[in-house]
Amino acid sequence: MMGYALRTATRGFRTGLIVVAGIAAASLPVASAGAQPKKVVELFTSQGCSSCPPADRLAERLVSEDDQILTVSLPVDYWDYLGWKDTLASPDYSQRQRAYAARRGDRSVYTPQMVINGEEHVVGSRERDVRAALARTAPFTADVDLEISDMVVKATVDGALPKGARMATVYFLRIQDEATVDIGRGENAGRKIKYTNVVRHLQPIGMWSGGKETFRMPKSKLVVNGDARCAILIQVEDRDGPGVIIGAAVTDWHGGS
Questions:
Q1: Of 44, 49, 215, 242, which sits 20 to 30 A from 161 (CA to CA)?
Q2: What is the CATH number of the domain that holds 110?
């Protein structure tokens, strides 16, 4: 049994950023407006980890209990060699988890791991530790107004960067509200496990340096069958990788097509 034994990253690296220019669009009727959570929890989980199901259930509870917390699941692929290829995993999420560890300097990469607001990490199945970490978070410094119209996803960011920060990345996330997986092999063989708020795609759409700025993306390029909602994260980054999350918004896809 794997448990949540720590995995040591073999080498540090930094995440590459792709800056996508905002796309000009005419003013359109708004189909849905986003909520602004106050905290963000990223659960790094794996279908091949026998210690992950309790953390997956905790993530589901956080989603149902508190709309002030944006809790998302990012399945990783580094346990695939144990006999089961995770059907939801992306190497991008494994890379994101390693980048967090490299920036912290502890190189702690394991499952289940929850990262709170891009900074503190805790074992994702330890509910008391997770809730204590959530209680320690600092307030966001960026407001995010997320709207979806017939054709455009528009995120308007306003506020200030933390002291000493020069830029923040604006991330767009496509989220599947839930996925239930029958696992055929590996440590969880024979189990049916439910995953909540599964990130299906994460990409940078621009850089923000403070003040008020609007970022736009064409809705037609983003909507995929099975994705229930989308989110925006504002995350301080530098050459060392992703840092503190200072703003967020989430909304459902319903409305104009």
A1: 44
A2: 3.40.30.10
Indicate if the pLDDT at residue 5 is higher than 90: no
On whether residue 27 sits in a domain, the answer given is yes
Q: Residue 29 to residues 135, 153, 213, 248: CA-CA distances in angstroms?
A: 38, 12, 20, 23
DSSP state of 226: T
What's the structural domain count of the chain?
1
Q: How far apart are the first and last CA of the chain?
A: 46
Domain holding 44, by residue range, is: 16-252
Cα 184-173-122 angle, rounded to 5 deg: 65
The rounded distance, in Å, linking the Cα atoms of 198 and 63 is 12
Q: How far apart are CA 236 and CA 86, in angstroms?
A: 30
DSSP E strands in 69-191: the ranges are 69-75, 108-109, 113-116, 120-123, 142-149, 152-159, 168-182
